[in-house]
Write a structure and sequence with these properties.
The chain has 391 residues and is mainly β. Among the domains are: 87 residues, no CATH class; 76 residues, no CATH class. The protein contains four helices and 13 strands. Strands 1, 6, 7, 8, 9, 10, 11, 12 and 13 form a nine-stranded antiparallel sheet that branches. It has a two-stranded antiparallel ribbon with strand order 2-3. The chain is elongated.
Amino acid sequence: MARRRIEGYWTCSHCGTKGIGGLTKTCPKCGNPQSEGLKFDIKGGPKRYLDSEIAENYGKGADWVCAYCGSYNRYNQVSCRNCGGGKADSEKDYFGNEVTVTPKEDYNSEQYMSTEDDDLQEESYSYEAQQSLSPCKEETSDRVDLSYNPIERYDDKITSFFRSINLKSVLAVLGGAIAFVFIIMFLISIFTPQTYDATISDKSWERNVTIQELITFDESDWEVPVGGRVYDERQEVRDYEEIIVDYEIVEHEVPREEFDHYEYKYYDNGDGTFDEEEIAVYKTVYDIEYEKVPVYDEIPIYDTKYYYKIDRWRYARTEKASGTTDDPYWPQFQLANKERENGKSEVYTINFIANEKAYSKNVSYEEWQSYQLGEKVQITVVAGIVTEVSK
């Protein structure tokens, strides 16, 4: 919402008269002008809104403080109306900001407060003046400063640099880097292929046969699978269907936003006026709505369920044979009634000794037969695993 401009109030620091209009630059009782340290407020009397023609002349810049007599002057006045002192000699304005001859349009020192409706809360307007950042004037001299030593200045900079370094942080980073390097080197050493001269110390083999047995199971389903032998049929609930049996009225709370009141923010323009911003505040209210909703009931759906017996093959056992001879064989066994073989597997292993360490590798039957006990070979090892064997 657009802001409206209102007149503020001030208190004379000389005679103590209160509630003086902000646009009145001199005290109507003692005649003294507005002076340094004055603060405008909005609590001195009723709200007085400025008409558009007057309002246009304000809010463009804060009053400046005369450097000679301390009086306040409009932003566009180039000389003090009280003593004639120039604006160019002034160092600060109402907000304590540095004064320039060209009036500023934007201000970063807006001060405001909030109230509700016409009930203005009693708050104190305190504005701490910001220190002016005007450059210092230094006396100049034609004399050369013989005490200046560029080498000492350079040494001081080096000393300051090393003092600024956090030794613990440097050591922590250095330690982390060293640990990272060691980890990388360790991984490289593990995964780099190594070739060793080795001796075949042992040969072993293992052969397995998996046995299944035929078992009769009792099962039930809505359909009979192939091989099933039905011994009973029953009507049972297979599913449920929802149907509408009635309607009921349900009450709902529906939220909506409703205007509640206005709150106001006031921005001090620093020239005896304030800008008032009206802010609408809303509250959440709930309306009751009614809805007709269906009431459902579940109706069972019946179907024929079959109970049957069926024969299925299941794992029974594994027959094993193993040894170290050069002639491996399959395990000897007899199948019982309703049993069958379901598969065979075989593993052939060669064991090595290299650098007083034991290694092993599973190989094919043909390769296993080609090696003999005590034979010298070369093995390639990666991460402790034999990857290649050569004679």
